[in-house]
């Protein structure tokens, strides 16, 4: 006797449910096995210092299908806790209780702007396997929430090194804001998809109205953050745009106008690509000795724990650093499917200074006149190394100082520690240093996006550093005046004789 139609339907539903639960269980088991395998990925052989400097050690590439995972679980800072400042420096809290503060800019009146931001909705890690894995781990690393899309103005109203006032500036046009500069009565902000500006005067505490768009930018992608830097004369704006993937995983056409730095000329109202082949350029600043633009760059992943060293380098007009085909001048990445441009190897530049493999440098600020960091930090650049997510042991999670000579040349020495202690002894993260900037009083400010803090670093008793005078550009001597020339025919010249 056959069952009723209702009973058959119930049995079919139960059978389907049972199969679905089995499939879900298998997926969970596979995910757990994957994570267990990932966390047991190969450990690095070289120290971070060994993959740093003008001539970093480059390990043999070991291509990975699935990246090694090494995440520092965020635990925050307890009251009274702070990073460890190197000998001779002290660190205090300038501001706390912030929501994922990333970049900073300091206004002429001393107000500090910090962008509370994160990746745009719907595109958190880009494409490819590495993007998929990175996306899964954003929440664990403290970077998986929605973007706050606000700029906070911090004001030290009493001059004691603490922000006594804060104003949260909101505007619907803020869309994963990152780089910020102030110029001639306007605040320029780099969203993930374009550069916009508002009328803004120092002392103002809100962003009102609809902004003016300066230029569009390719949106989102694995590297969504767009930074800004203003030339010392204020006439040119530099915009960094990272790649959409690790190594053009979705094809080279998807990387159009990415992995580059652009220059906008305020006088000519024109834009051009200034440099290319830089996987993810972030912090930018101008060398005070030479006036050159420098940048920190996050290099590629999934070639092993010791490849490829991230770097700090000068960026002259037309510079090409090889991504995705080449790294560190002469090393070809054979994983890249797109054909390499002809003669590329002949003009790819070698980076000036390695910062270590997978350390993720973000913030960059050269020491300048007026800073109160002491004579040990008179010539060089401060770099915030945000920290690795795909290396064992963990690397970065600190602020370092790269020494330069008094002619603006980087020195062959390992990075000197400035702030450490962002990691606990068992590998959890109190915070992650993100950006560096100088306050008006000369203190070094360090944003900590995971900890929600802006740290203030000084050398007690240090006098403000003297101003650095830029080395003048070499101007060739004027040509000597030329006398009058007279051309006279030579009748004896063989040129006048007919050919026999």
From TrEMBL:
The keyword Transmembrane helix applies. It comes from the Bacteria. Keywords: Membrane, Transmembrane, Transmembrane helix. Coiled coil: none annotated. Residues 182-303, 348-458 form the Pyrroloquinoline quinone-dependent pyranose dehydrogenase beta-propeller domain. The chain crosses the membrane at residues 21-39. The keyword Transmembrane applies. Residues 478-500 are annotated as: Disordered. This is Sorbosone dehydrogenase family protein.
